Amino acid sequence: MSAHPKASSPRGDGLLPAAYKSRFVEAGGLRLHYQDYGTVGKPAMLCLHGGAAHAHWFDFIAPGLVAAYRVIALDQRGHGDSEWADPPAYSYERYAADLAEVVEKLDLRDFVLIGHSMGGTVSLEYASTYPGRVGKLIVVDSTLQMTPERVAALRDVGSRQGSNYATREEFIARYRLRPAGTSAAPEVMRHLAQNSARQYPDGTWRHKFDRSVYATRETTDGLPRWNHIRIPALLVKAERSQRISPQVYGEVKARCPQVQLTEVPHCDHHVTLDNPTGFVSAVKSFLTKR
What angle do CA 267, 283, 249 make, to 5 degrees? Predict the structure, then answer.
C-alpha cells in the first residue's frame, strides 16, 4: 500500500487530483488494483472506468466527493495496475463477477456505483445480476447497445500492435484519448498520461492495458438489463456526445421508470476529465434528492 500526494498545481476550476492510497484485492484469480481516496467511515462510492482506461479517470472528481463518501476507483482486469487475464477473459459477465467479489471482500453495502463508458455497462450488468449491495446506480455516457459494426471496429483496433515509445516523456508527449475529442485542461491530460504508461521488458514504454480487451470485445444489448434495476438510477449524458440519445433514454425509462437523466455541459465523452466540476455537481444533485 502506498500513499500518493496531491499535485501542486491547481486546476482552472479549483479541483486538484485527489490524494489516494494504492491497494490490491484478489478477484477472479487476478490481483486487482484500486485507489482508495477516503474517507473511511463514510458511505462508499465505487467508480469503474471505461475500456483501455484506468482508475485515474476519477482523480479530478474525487476531491469534490470525499467529504461525503469513501471514494474508491477500481482498475478492472487487464487495465491500469491490475493483472491481465491469460488466456484473455474480458466479457461483461466476467467483469461483473470480479466486481461482485471485490464488493464482498471490501464489505461494501448500500454503496453508490458509478460507471463510465464500458464501466457503465459493467455496472449495469452487476446491478442487474447481483442485486442487494448497490444502493444507487450512475451510468455515465455508455453505449448501451454494442452493434456488430462497433464491435468489429474495436476488435480491429485490438488486433493491431500497439505503439512503442523509447522514453516515458515521448509517451506523454504523444498521448491521446480514445475516443478522440476532449476539452480537458493540459494539466489534466499530462496527469493522465503520466499514469497511463508502463515500461516493458524490452525497455520501451506502452499503454498499460491488455489490447485483448478490445480484440475480444463482444456485442451486447444493455437495455434488457434495465428491466431488473429497482434502485435509484441516473444516466449522465455528455453534452457533445450522442451515446445517450433521446431515443435511448426513452427506451431505458420505459424499462426503469425511476431512472433520471442529466446532461453535463462543455464536455465530450470523457466527462470526468472535460468538466469535473460539472460532473460532481450532477452527481451531488442526484444523490441528495429525496
Answer: 70
